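Model it.
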Amino acid sequence: MNRLGAYAKINLIQSGLLFEKKGPWNIAADFLVDMSFSVKDIEGMLREYESDHHTGMDTGQIAALLYDYTSGYPYLVSRLCMFMDERIPGKAWTKEGVRASVKMLLEDNSPLFQSLTNKLADFPDLNQVILRLLFQRQSIAYNADDKAVRDALMFGFVKIRNSSVLLANRIFEMRYIKEIIFGDRLLIEAVV
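Modeled.
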């Protein structure tokens, strides 16, 4: 961009004639690809791992459990598997191993959870959406004109199913509850 174009834009912004909204992404078009793993995707990865490591896991059962907690959120699936692989001694690839890894994840101070917490602080209306879903158990119909719901969707807090707004996954739900009303240990022990 030439200097005149940059200067003119700055002047327009300073004079209030050009309003810019900050966004989290630098893209010009919608990205409509669902990046979540399905149970089948997770099972395929676990089968590959099993063929290399011979743990004796029931790949179908573990894939279903991982999906149940994460709804296929790639970072959460990977993080849980990393905990089972690297931090859980003995029979890590069991139902108990998945639960132990969930507990570790809920206690984790990962960049993902830091980012979600920061978004709740930066966008107070998000708290209202989360509170309505968590504690009031209100059904929220998806409305593309509801800015708080749009933001919650954009940041990955929620998903849309059958035109209803739902929390994105059980891990986020447990983490939100932990953050909002409980001390660290109380909720983790009760929910897992």
